[in-house]
Specification:
Elements: H1 2-13, E1 29-31, E2 36-38, H2 45-48, H3 53-72, E3 77-79, E4 84-86, H4 109-117, E5 127-130, E6 135-138, H5 142-151, H6 167-193, H7 211-222, H8 257-272, H9 280-290, H10 296-306
Antiparallel strand pairs: 1-2, 3-4, 5-6
Length: about 350
Amino acid sequence: MQAKMIFEEDAESDPTIRSTKVDKPLELELDIGNLLASDPNELNLKHLKSKNPNGYLQSLARDNTQLLINQIWTLPFERVDDVVIAKLPKPEYLLPREKPAPKGKQMTKWETYAKDKGITKRKKTKLVWDDLVKDWVPRYGYKRAAAEHEKDWVLEVPANADPFEDQFEKKSEAKSERVAKNELQRLKNIARARKVVVPSAGLTLTERPDKTELNQAMHVAKKATASLGKFQQKLPREKPLKNAGKKRKFEPLVQESGKEKNMNLNVLDNVMNKKPLMATEKLVSRGLREGPKEPVENSFEESEKRGRRGGMKGTKNTKAKKGSVRKGGFKKGRAAPRSKPKKKRQ
């Protein structure tokens, strides 16, 4: 109230400062919580059609704002670090949302079934007493596996099971199958909540097919009939498939007398006059694999150092055994020559 009185005194002394008192025929509808002021008074059409309508609108906005600020000064306030803070009441007018309100999370199959049957979820304890281990075992977590290993250190082989089958491996496979089944069910729940159509069999497409792929698939589907699409009706504005492949053309069975002869002669000339092509790629790869050759001078010097016996391989102890090599040797892959029959002595 003291600040309001000070402003009024300043407005009376200085004509440039406008007064905080504003008179209106009808009171404004104020919503202090939203800092909203609605003016039900009619606009002055004479001032709106004058040469300076913006001045009239600015003056009207200033008066309405002044009334809103006057109402704020009547609220209880407090000082925080030399700052005056007014406590606004709850808003009366509900502002419309820009976007629709978020929908509730779609229930899974189990949640829907539990709601229909009236099944309520009971809060379970984290630890469970195990009679075999004689200790409190966690229901889940990293210590659960250690407790299971300590509990099932030996497994009984059923009577109808294979005695050589690993029961521990069978148990782990069954557990992994259960985990995979639960994961598949979780993904199905997510797809159902997002309204995604999941095929019953096969894999989903990772990419969207483009226009050409769809056009090609349409033509393939049209030809999947008994008549290969010959009597299939065309769609309106259907474009022909580009690069659909050309039909193979065979030579006629009956040709001119000289044409077939010339074709055979050309084939014969190509075969007879064919020159061997050097495999440059093989030569280059072999050169890279073997590396650069040594110069001739170095090889000559090394041959002098080795002497006459330098080219012989082996050591002193390696001698050819008797009978290991035949004089009349034969090539690999051929049969040995048959020896002549000995003549009988008379």
